Amino acid sequence: MRKYTFPVAMVMVFLALSGCGPQPVEEALPTRTPTVTLHPPTATPLPPRSLTVCVGAEPATLYPYGNVSATARTILSVVYPGPLATNSYTYQPVILEQLPSLENGDVQIVPAKVYVGDEVIDAEGNPVTLTKGVRLRPAGCRRASCAIEYDGAGEIEMDQMQVTFRLRPGLRWSDGEPLTAADSVYSFQLNAADATPGPKYLVERTQSYEAADEQTVQWWGKPGYVGADYLRMFWAPYPQHLWSQHTAEELPEFDLAARTPVGWGPFLIQEWVAGDHLTMVRNPYYFRASEGLPRLDQLVFRFYADADAAVNALVDGRCDVLDTSLALEGQVSRLRAAATEGRAQLFAVPSNVMERLDFGIRPASYDNGYQANADRPDLLSDPRLRQAIALCLDRQKVVNEVLFGLSVVPDSFLPREHPFYNNSVARYAFNPTAARTLLEEAGWRDLDANPATPLQAFAVPNVPAGTPLILNYYTTNAVQRVQVAGILKDSLAQCGIQVNVQYLTAEELYAPGPQGPLFGRNFDLAEYALGVLGMDPLCEWYTTAEIPTATNHWIGVNISGYSNPAFDAACRTVRESLPEEAAYATAYRELQAIFAEDLPVVPLYWRVRVAATRPDLCHFALDATAQSALWNVESLDYGEGCP
Q: Cβ atoms within 10 A of the Cβ of 287, count?
């Protein structure tokens, strides 16, 4: 706080005494009045305006290329915000001047000459060394239909993608050192190092990543790679001036990388008290400081392994924010009550994590050919049965009763807010009457005229006559899933479909194949969740290549065994087109139409992101696609700081 010095007043008074007439004069000695110095009152320093954010379990590390937990992601979003923000299913630049695009010229597709021995991306999208016989897409070819087999005889041109990223001028690390394009190149090199854990998908499709100047980075893809995910080709900068003194193997144990990293965000880490809290204070070099940001002086992250205890702390005034890393879905009723009493604000939005019910369309035992006497009857290969099951699932009741009406029933694998959502897809609202009509068409009859017993097969291909419509339903023993399975079991019974729910531990359900029921593809129905941290749920999840089999060591997420060449082709088009191109939107609409008709999966609901705050906190907003609940932490305020 600035100290003010007030002027000091000094007063001197001289008194003289005199007599009258001829009386002798007695001179009075001058009386000196002491100098009076007035000291200003000492200003009492105001305490820092602090915000306490209660988060989930204490993270093991903040090293961004390490095993980053949900709590770590929240903290890192304050240290390294961006570099691109993802809000409301759109991208916004944070430390970049603009988003690269075809329109502004920062994205270009150019012909590149290649020859035997060059690294390219083949017609299937895989990085390979070019040799005779490799199938590739020559320049101008963006579809499988125009791919050719390389004859090895000479040069050939292929499409090559180039993207330019431009940093904001004047960026600095929180220690005052300049943040430059070289820091992003260093990050790429670190990510590419064998000792750095994690997927190398982007690295493997990169020909070069170089700094053109202090603010500009240029990415060149390998010839043959043209992808919709080009914005991901900017590597978040990390402080080369601090980290480069350590090897990739050493960095996870280096405090300035794992515990007190410097960043470019509005706050910097001051201390980390193990087992209790982490404190952050204003970053004096924050690039938006001239705007009066951040509005607060200090952030304190308190670690809570128990969501119930965190809610108590909010109500008692020991927490100002409950972060989404606390998994608050089970605390909604308490938080609603606190909000009604004026002791909290409750925030909830549907996320982009889908709770889903997968059909075991093609069990792993079918991989060597369907054997009628040995394999499970082919119950679920007919889309009409899958559609009927969808019509028999009272998903809206699940949303209303289990999720307090805070989510929605999906019609697609894309949320309705997504810019490429297809609003014309087939929908399956709860309708037992329509379901029974479909079941009748598919050959499932009420042969005993008893609505309390399951339907039986009558002329259903690869299903013995009289087989009852009884399905095994696998899920975990989590409280929410037990509630969901109970509702769905009852609603399916209204259609003559019996399910035997089997509750497993997470370790049992997600065990690797071939033993695990999901990844070993040995189930009828399976409820679980799948989602992404970004904005775009992956169509690859439903492609043939993602079916876990013995051949691919049971690696893949298409556990239903669903396979449709038309879906596979449309998914490839999405991945190999740019969002600005018409083919991209067309393929996305086609994918959703095929998905809704074939229905390999019934989307049950979008999982809910839940947070809560003190009643007077302002500018807080949850977003389904934001990196964290603190995506705009620099703007948060409370009390007199709010409008």
A: 19
Please state the φ and ψ torsions of residue 71, each to the nearest 5 degrees.
-65, -45
Together in a domain, 369 and 479? yes
pLDDT surpasses 80 at 385: yes
By three-state DSSP, how is residue 252 classified? helix
Decide if 454 contacts 470 (C-beta within 8 A).
yes
> What whole-number distance in Å separates Cα of residue 41 and Cα of residue 36?
16
Residue 109 forms beta bridges with which residues? 161
Q: Please indicate, yes or no, whether residues 383 and 516 belong to a single structural domain of this protein.
A: yes
Distance from chain centroid for Cα 386 = 30
Are residues 616 and 594 part of one domain?
Answer: no
User: Which one-letter amino acid corresponds to residue 157?
Assistant: E
Does the pLDDT at position 356 exceed 70? yes
Q: In this structure, are 443 and 496 located in the same domain?
A: yes
| Residue 567 clears pLDDT 50, i.e. is over it | yes
CA 327, CA 54: separation in Å to the nearest integer? 12
Give the containing element (helix H, strand E) for 339. Answer: helix 332-340
Peptide bond connecting 83 to the previous residue in cis, omega within 30 degrees of 0 = yes
Q: Are 399 and 405 in contact (CB under 8 A)?
A: yes
Is the pLDDT at 238 greater than 90? The verdict is yes
Distance between CA atoms of residues 432 and 304, nearest Å: 45
Query: For residue 13, what pLDDT band results from cuts at 50, 70 and 90?
Result: very low
Q: In angstroms, rounded to a whole number, what is the distance separating the alpha carbons of residues 201 and 213?
A: 26
Over residues 562-571, the mean pLDDT reads 97
- Is the domain of 527 the same as that of 623? no
Beta bridge partners of 468: 456
**Nearest alpha-carbon partner for 329 in 627, 637, 611, 87:** 611
Domain span at residue 284 reads 50-91+255-350+609-641
Note whether 363 and 331 are same-domain residues. no
Whether residue 290 is contained in a domain is answered as yes
Does some domain include residue 96? Answer: no
The CA angle 250-255-257, to the nearest 5 degrees, is 70
- Give me the CATH number covering residue 345: 3.40.190.10
- Outline where 34-127 has alpha helix (H): 70-79
| Statement to judge: residues 437 and 569 lie in one domain | yes
* Token digits of residue 188: 């790429």
DSSP at 627: S
383 & 451 share domain: yes
Closest by alpha carbon to 184, among 222, 212, 226, 162?
A: 212
CATH code: domain of residue 365: 3.10.105.10
Is residue 83 in a domain?
yes
Identify whether 401 is part of a domain.
Answer: yes
| Rg of the Cα atoms in the chain | 33
Cα–chain center distance at 477: 25
Judge whether 415 and 425 are in contact, CB under 8 Å: no
Give the pairing of strands 470-476 and 498-504.
parallel
Lowest mean pLDDT: which of 18-27, 244-253, 527-536? Answer: 18-27
Distance CA 386, CA 476 (A): 22
Q: Which residues pair with 113 in a beta bridge?
A: 157
- For residues 351 and 609, the answer to whether their CB atoms sit within 8 Å is yes
Cα distance between residue 256 and residue 260, in whole Å: 5
* Contact criterion met (CB below 8 Å) for 624 and 607: no
Instruction: Domain count for the chain, please give it.
Output: 3
Length of the chain: 643
CA 191/CA 248 separation, integer angstroms = 9
User: What distance, in Å, lies between the first and last C-alpha atoms of the chain?
Assistant: 24
